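Researcher: Next sequence.
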Amino acid sequence: MTKADLKNKQRVWVNNGTDRVMLGRVKILPNGYTTLTDPKGFTFSLSELEWRWPQINFEIYQPI
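Model: Next structure:
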């Protein structure tokens, strides 16, 4: 799934193209800016993650 498929408050795995690197909760702000917050409470902008991992994609988190 791509960043266009992300929905507010959705939990997703961030995949760098080969491995899952981060679990995060999506937050889409009114101005369209998207952030992901990890389980420890650190917030990252989507553009920062795209810069770090150019092949970024997402998988919906499925709790067992």
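Model: The two ends are 20 Å apart (CA to CA). The chain has a mean pLDDT of 92.
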